[in-house]
Design goal:
- By secondary structure, the protein is an alpha/beta fold.
- The protein has 15 helices and 16 strands.
- The strands form four sheets. Strands 1, 2, 5, 6, 7, 14 and 15 form a seven-stranded mixed beta sheet that branches.
- The longest helix has 26 residues, at 2-27.
- The termini are far apart.
Length: 477
């Protein structure tokens, strides 16, 4: 009984300490200061939806035909003539665009805004409006690239064109980098621009690229909308699974076939979760959520040092949240025979792997070998990629970004996080210590699901929000 009483007392004391610690943490929450809204009227941005609609009509599919990129560049030059007077010609051939708008204070380090002109492919099946028609209907601009990422492109260009037209001066010098192949890793766009900056010894106070958005209803315990800011992004790796075995005619098969062996290995990969971990971006996310959530939820997420295993288990229930706390492996392509009546001598599968910061590709390959448990399955790392460096969730640059977000979206709280997808931001980490990933739009789960799928769209209201966001970000910097 004495032992039980001692344990009970210790647990009660721990709970009291945690409760006090959580209460003190929540009491230290800072209120967001307001910023001015100078130079902003609805009339200034009334043509933006039409401009986005027209930009969507250029089928700038990454890695495909070059002519649509040439035509889109010409369209942007005609539509935004004042801004194009500030074009920087790059030393290498690319369809990417780069602009520089000089500020009045030469002592201030410049900043960089990024977006991209390319899109993923789209076939017309399943669309309410054709993917490259750019139709405006029901309060939305429909089409491939409307959300990812021509919406941001047009919002940035509209903002600067208006400021130049109205002769609004900015203190800080701003660069705009519009990549041309972000969807296929940015080597011919953002990578070239970043190398140009490095060759000119240009460094930035901060860089902002596409990324997290303002999410509605993602965490029930948090009443506010959540504006997630990517401090880093997961690395994207490609592995190939190869099985070589006897072939022959399907009428007299020897089993298991190469495809059967491969299928079992693929199934094991998909049914085995990799080890969970709470990285710095997720730790900062949890700490911020604790300030704005119900007290029981705050007690857990605000003390992740104690409840790490529980938090990882909770996050594992959702595919989106699960990707924040562990590396993931997904079998995305499989290849066997070229005819239905042939047993192939070789079968291959492609695995896309997204790793947490600090995890190495060769370690993941070793883990996949342990998961498949079959020496007949050869696993090779075809393409490795370093994950993004982690930018700080504090300091002048980050605070200015969060202040701008929460003034543009009063219903939201800015929260740092780890981005699962890839972006051009990765290429700019060598020219800035503060690289952030945020798209200034209000979304729900349905809108996010459309991004690389059928019926991608961006609301007119969201396009206007994005322009207001960039206006505040630039003029108050």
């Amino acid at each position: 009984m004495v032992i039980i009483g001692t344990i009970t007392g210790a647990l009660l004391l721990l709970f009291i300490i945690l409760a006090i610690r959580t209460a003190l943490m929540r009491s230290s929450k800072k209120e967001v200061s307001g910023i001015s809204r100078k130079g902003e009227t609805a009339d200034d941005i009334s043509n933006a939806p039409l401009h986005l609609s027209e930009a969507i009509r250029f089928e700038t599919v990454a890695g495909k035909a070059e002519q649509p990129f040439i035509e889109l560049r010409e369209y942007l030059k005609v539509t935004y003539p004042l801004l194009h007077a500030h074009t920087i010609e790059l030393p290498e051939q690319t369809y990417a665009l780069l602009f520089r708008i000089d500020g009045t204070e030469a002592s201030l380090q410049p900043s960089l805004l990024c977006a991209h002109l390319d899109v993923v492919p789209a076939s017309p099946e399943g669309w309410e409006h054709p993917p490259f028609a750019g139709e405006i209907a029901d309060g939305f601009i429909w089409g491939r690239g409307s959300f990812d990422d021509k919406g941001s492109t047009i919002a940035i260009l509209e903002t600067f064109e208006r400021m130049l037209r109205e002769k609004i001066e900015v203190q800080r010098t701003w660069y705009i980098a519009l990549g041309s192949d972000e969807e296929v890793r940015g080597e011919a766009g953002a990578a070239l621009i970043s190398s140009f900056f490095a060759s000119q010894n240009i460094r930035f106070a901060f860089v902002l690229d596409e990324g997290g958005a303002v999410a509605q209803g993602f965490i029930p315990q948090v009443k506010k909308d959540i504006a997630v800011i990517g401090l880093s992004e997961k690395a994207s790796l490609t592995a190939t699974l190869t099985v070589s075995s006897h072939g022959g005619h399907s009428s007299t098969p020897e089993q298991p076939t190469s495809v059967g062996i491969l299928a079992r290995a693929a199934s094991r990969i998909e049914h085995t979760r990799l080890k969970g971990s709470i990285t710095y971006p997720v730790k900062k996310m949890l700490d911020t959520l604790a300030l704005h959530s119900s007290f029981p939820f705050a007690l857990i997420v605000g003390n992740s040092w104690l409840f790490r295993s529980l938090i990882i288990r909770i996050f594992s229930a959702s595919a989106t949240m699960n990707a924040l706390v562990r590396s993931t492996a997904a079998v995305t392509m499989i290849q066997g025979a070229k005819a239905s009546n042939i047993v192939p001598t070789q079968a291959k599968a492609t695995v896309n792997i997204r790793t947490l910061p600090g995890e190495r590709g060769k370690d993941i390959i070793s883990t996949l070998h342990r998961i498949t448990r079959d020496p007949r399955v050869e696993i090779t790392l075809e393409r490795d990629s370093e994950g993004g460096r982690i930018s700080p969730a504090e300091g002048e640059a980050y605070e200015h970004l969060t202040r701008t977000i929460e003034n543009t979206f009063p219903s939201a709280v800015a929260v740092p996080y780890l981005m699962s997808g890839a972006s051009d931001a990765l290429h700019y980490e060598k020219v800035s210590d503060n690289v952030y990933r945020f798209s200034p739009v209000l979304t729900d789960k349905g809108e996010l699901a459309r991004m690389h799928s059928e019926n991608e769209r961006l609301s007119v209201e969201n396009l206007h929000r994005a322009i207001r966001f960039y206006t505040l970000l630039i003029q108050e910097s």
